[in-house]
Automatic annotation (TrEMBL):
InterPro entries: SGT (IPR047150), TPR-like_helical_dom_sf (IPR011990), TPR_rpt (IPR019734). It comes from the Bacteria. PROSITE patterns: TPR (PS50005). This is Tetratricopeptide repeat protein. Pfam families: TPR_16. Residues 1-27 form the signal peptide. PANTHER family: LD24721P. TPR repeats lie at residues 67-100, 135-168. Keywords: Repeat, Signal, TPR repeat.
Length: 187
């Protein structure tokens, strides 16, 4: 065995416990989210709000304190209406970790609020590819589709969000509104 192979074997041996602990942590996080989603489907409205907050907290954990700080700075910028700065923060996170769905979702929101609906849709697609249970992204998709004159597709997006989170208030209101509007149309 060459020197290079021996060094690589030592590196792999040294990193293996770390990699296994990260995989175990990811599985634990997935199990925690699975439990939260199971409870969300059967929860009463008050409990559903608490469970929703727990889910958002889990989704907001990147695994990196630096990226978590960037996420918070982006959210703070968005709260202040500085969508350009928010988009820059979220883009920096995505550049470092393109698998962090919540960074894509946050940027989709900032893009939407800045009026960039097409790019927002692109980011929503990425969120849903990474996290198909992201009821926030599905609801955002419904908003964009409804605003662009696609009520049937919007209704489908809102219903998909409600299948995951039955107490999602904005989606419930949107479904009622769209169903009522559809009643007045000829088939």
């Amino acid at each position: 065995m060459g020197l290079r192979a021996a060094i690589l074997n030592r590196i792999v041996a040294a990193l293996l416990p770390l990699l296994l602990s990260l995989a175990a942590a990811q599985a634990e996080d997935g199990a925690k989210l699975d439990g939260l989603f199971d409870r969300l489907k059967t929860a009463q409205a008050g409990e559903a709000s608490r469970i929703e907050r727990e889910i958002w907290l889990e989704w907001s954990k990147s695994g990196s304190p630096a990226l978590d700080l960037l996420l918070q700075r982006g959210r703070d910028a968005m709260t202040l209406g500085d969508y350009s700065a928010a988009i820059e923060h979220f883009t920096a996170i995505i550049d470092h970790d393109p698998t962090f769905a919540e960074a894509w979702n946050a940027r989709a929101t900032a893009l939407y609020l800045s009026g960039a609906f097409g790019p927002s849709l692109g980011d929503i697609a990425q969120v849903l590819a990474l996290n198909p249970r992201h009821f926030g992204a599905l609801s955002g998709l419904g908003m964009i589709l409804e605003g662009s004159g696609n009520p049937q597709k919007a209704l489908a997006a809102y219903r998909a969000a409600l299948a995951i989170h039955p107490h999602l208030q904005d989606a419930l209101e949107a479904v009622k509104r769209l169903e009522k509007a559809a009643e007045g149309q000829e088939i």
